[in-house]
Design goal:
Layout: H1 2-16, H2 19-26, E1 36-41, E2 46-53, E3 63-68, E4 86-88, E5 91-93, E6 95-96, E7 101-102, E8 104-109, E9 113-118, E10 123-128, E11 133-137, E12 146-151, E13 155-160, E14 164-169, E15 184-189, E16 192-199, E17 210-215, E18 218-223, E19 227-232, E20 237-242, E21 247-251, E22 263-267, E23 271-275, E24 280-285, E25 305-310, E26 315-322, E27 332-337, E28 340-345, E29 349-355, E30 358-363, E31 368-371, E32 384-386, E33 396-398, E34 403-408
Antiparallel strand pairs: 1-2, 1-14, 2-12, 3-8, 4-5, 6-7, 9-10, 9-14, 10-11, 12-13, 15-16, 15-24, 16-22, 17-18, 19-20, 19-24, 20-21, 22-23, 23-28, 25-26, 25-34, 26-32, 27-28, 29-30, 29-34, 30-31, 32-33
Length: 409
């Protein structure tokens, strides 16, 4: 009898400690923040599931980057005011000499996009949730690479960009439970702390992604999910604290020195912030089973509208084209502050007050930010178009130097 009871108790214990049970008790990863959609190929095949852009973007609030092909409002600006090239997220966008216009970067969160339709080479059309269709051409490695699809029946499928006919995005099913969790943490810099979703070296964002470096005894490739903290140790090295208590000093790769492509944090107060190695101090990871906002939590964008007060005190109201290319609320305001690049969706912006080479941005949350540099809030801004606000209903153009304040509806 005792042996029978002991056998039953042992069997129950083994069942309770089975991998599936342990995973359930630990809390399954919420998959709603992962990119999901259907990839139609030129050969007529269809793959549906969780998507990842190569080994980089994996979540709805990650950014899809390219260059805008058409800039219809740039014709309002006198040619002598055209500016030089710009650099955003390490990507340089230059001139479109064929039209005498400077190229502009297209940036949108994946959660704002309905479809992407490749059109040969590095060209494509992006259909936004708002219904707007935007022609893009090159500008980043988000075009021309590989789309990884975790197909719901086939498993992992790698689809070359040249084989893609269309990518249609859709809400991630609640039944999906990813094996890896999203990286989250507190980022300490010389300008204060940020907290949110982490993309290390502008790439590693999953617990299964790896931090590479040279240790005392050779090369190491460590799963990010095993790391408790990373701290800058000068220009050429980083101190890595493991969850098991061990401490390592790594060097020799752009994961752990000043050649890093930046540490990105999706902070709910601002949007995406990219921090350089020079101002980075320490990152402490925080374990979570969440993965960020789901696709349905990104509202369809709408046209930018508001009032522009010029230096003479006159007020101009209507639909706005900010910097002569940003026209909807999903678009991104770029600005620099104390070694950090801020990428703020216009839907979060209440007002902007230019001040020469600087600018003050007030968010709808009430937070005020002063920026000393940045493409969108400095003298490099191309100016504002107010549609239908000119004489006889024509579009009115205000150079940046004549703008005193912009208030968004």
């Amino acid at each position: 009898m005792k042996r029978t009871v002991l056998f039953i108790l042992t069997a129950c214990a083994l069942l309770y400690l089975s991998p599936s049970r342990v995973h359930s008790d630990a809390g399954a990863v919420d998959g709603r923040g992962f990119i999901h959609g259907t990839v139609d190929t030129r050969s007529g095949n269809t793959y549906t599931g969780v998507l990842r852009w190569g080994n980089e973007e994996a979540f709805w609030d990650d950014h899809f980057n390219s260059a805008k092909k058409d800039l219809p409002y740039m014709k309002l600006r006198p040619r002598e005011e055209e500016r030089r090239g710009i650099e955003i997220f390490g990507i340089t966008i230059g001139y479109r000499w064929d039209r005498g216009e400077p190229g502009r970067q297209f940036v949108a969160r994946f959660g704002d996009i309905a479809e992407i339709r490749p059109r040969g080479g590095d060209r494509a059309e992006v259909v936004m949730k708002s219904g707007a269709t935007i022609a893009i051409d090159g500008g980043s490695n988000d075009l021309g690479g590989t789309i990884v699809v975790l197909d719901e029946t086939l498993g992992e499928v790698e689809v070359s960009w040249r084989r893609v006919e269309r990518i249609a995005f859709s809400a991630t099913p609640a039944t999906i439970r990813p094996k890896a969790h999203r990286l989250y943490g507190k980022l300490r810099t010389e300008d204060g702390e940020f907290e949110g979703w982490i993309q290390w070296d502008s790439q590693e964002c999953l617990s299964t992604d790896r931090l590479d470096g040279e240790g005392e005894d050779g090369d190491l490739s460590i799963e990010m999910g095993r790391i408790r903290a990373i701290e800058r140790a000068g220009r050429r090295a980083a101190k890595v604290e493991m969850k098991d208590g061990r401490q390592l000093v790594l060097r020799g790769t752009n994961d752990v020195n000043d050649t890093i492509r930046g540490i990105m944090v999706e902070d709910e107060r601002y949007g995406r912030v990219k921090v350089s190695w020079d101002v980075f101090d320490r990152l402490d990871f925080i374990d979570t089973t969440k993965s960020g906002r789901g696709y349905d939590e990104f509202p369809a964008g709408r046209p930018l509208r508001g009032t522009v007060t010029d230096r003479s005190g006159a007020i101009h109201a209507g639909a706005l084209i900010y910097d002569l290319d940003e026209a909807e609320t999903w678009e991104i305001l770029h600005a620099d502050r104390h070694g950090a690049e801020y990428h703020i969706p216009f839907e979060r912006v209440r007002s902007i007050e230019p001040d020469g080479r600087k600018g003050k941005v007030t968010l709808r949350s009430g937070i005020e930010l002063s920026f000393e540099e940045g493409f969108d809030v400095s003298e490099r801004n191309a100016g504002i178009a107010i549609l239908g606000a000119g004489a006889d209903g024509a579009d009115r153009y205000l150079p940046w130097a004549e703008v005193k304040r912009i208030d968004f509806e």
